[in-house]
Amino acid sequence: MKIAKNTVVTLSMAVTDAQNNPIEETSGDGFTYLHGGYDDFFPKIEEALEGQEVGFKSTIQLEPDDAFGEYDAELVRVEDRSLFPKEIEPGMMFEGIPEGGTEDDVEFFTITDIEGDKVVLDGNHPLAGQALRCTVTVTEVREASEEEIEHQHVHGADGHHDHDDHETVH
Questions:
Q1: What is the pLDDT of residues 93-143, one digit of tens each?
Q2: 73-122 is classed in which CATH architecture?
Q3: CATH assignment of 7-68+129-156, among 3.30.450.20, 3.60.20.10, 3.40.50.1100, 3.10.50.40
Q4: Residue from 3, 52, 10 nearest 33 by CA
Q5: Where is the stretch described as Disordered (predicted)?
Q6: Which candidate, 47, 73, 50, places its Cα nearest to that of 60?
Q7: Which residues have CB under 8 Å from 50's CB, separation 6+?
């Protein structure tokens, strides 16, 4: 089966930075996504996979704008320590509403520093500003179910899907 809109694609994938330093490698069942512009995966990689079949392998260079965007210093903010649970440490992630945003504008923030009664939050993705190299191998292609197409994402083998739970900071 060829990769086309509304197919579910499973890949093994290795991601490195531009200097070939490893960032992430899939294991087990690999990475699975719903193909066809559903914002499940990077558009440049979807474009490279369109029309391909199981066994196809390619290395795709993603510039920051193709991946996680440029680093935006305006997404860094300082909040009062009292807004957070007692057991926090740098590296933890929280959901929050950006300054001037509404309940519909929830973003993820990573704690980058804790100084006294202040917490520094960064709304940039940890890989923002970096060029990436993604080596992908197609390991499976199947038709998407009607429910997956309706929900615009892949469901697990039992037909269910999970949504991550994160703590919220306002």
A1: 988 776 777 777 778 899 999 999 999 999 999 999 999 999 999 999 999
A2: Beta Barrel (2.40)
A3: 3.10.50.40
A4: 10
A5: 144-170
A6: 47
A7: 3, 4, 35
